[in-house]
Amino acid sequence: MKVRDVMTRKVVSVPADTPVLAIARLLADRGISAVPVTDGWGLLLGLVSEADLIRRLSSGDAPEPGFLRALLYDRDRAAERYAAVHGATAGDIMTREVITVTEEVTVEHAAALIEAHRVRRLPVVQDGVLVGILSRADLLRALLAPPAATSDDAIRAAVAAEMQRLPWADAPYVFFEVAGGAVTLHGFCHSAAVRRGLAAIAAGVPGVTAVVDRISDLQATRWA
User: Fold this and answer.
1) Which CATH number fits domain 152-223: 3.30.1340.30, 3.40.50.720, 3.40.1280.10, 3.40.50.1370?
2) Please, what is the average pLDDT of the chain?
3) What is the pLDDT of residue 64?
4) 146-169 mean pLDDT
5) What DSSP line would sit under the chain, residue for residue?
6) pLDDT digit string, tens, across residues 83-108
């Protein structure tokens, strides 16, 4: 599944000269946590999030006193940070380094980016132009979408490929069969964790309707 299949295409964006208070009101009224900033051509310039607005409040605290803090205090850096946080417009306070994706990226890769960078959404761009937003909610809808019908051969190939890709899944005494979309695991394995992992591999392949674990405990079989 691709990002284009689940992303939100109707995106609210603001120009760089939008007042900060107007952005705060927009986020509150729309019930959204961030808004993209674009130019007149639709090019993505940055993103203003709730975090950017919260920093505006938190930075109001005066610096803690102390000789060491005073010695290490960087006035220029502090002034620049204050100006950025307390700027009057979206262009002043927006986050400029934004992780983006294109419509052709897989939802799995997009989910990995969201997890790795600890963000709630990814702007979707085409040649720099904003065309949509992919949020965590969009990914949840993708997870709940009914899987398309998949042949047993395709399921078998996908399970085998994933087992080969993951080093821990190298279980030479385990094999599986696929019939009617159901994956049945056979063989011997001494690790309960590996058994659970192998079952998870099978369950995660699109089109799988059931997973049957018939793997035996290698140690128990040896001493039986």
Assistant:
1) 3.30.1340.30
2) 84
3) 57
4) 85
5) -BHHHH-B-S---B-TT-BHHHHHHHHHHHT-SEEEEE-TT-BEEEEEEHHHHHHHHHTTSPPPP-HHHHHH--HHHHHHHHHHHT-SBHHHH-B-----B-TTSBHHHHHHHHHHHT-SEEEEEETTEEEEEEEHHHHHHHHHSPPPP--HHHHHHHHHHHHHHSGGG--TTEEEEEETTEEEEEEEES-HHHHHHHHHHHHTSTT--EEEE-PEEHHHHHH-
6) 555 567 898 888 899 999 999 999 88
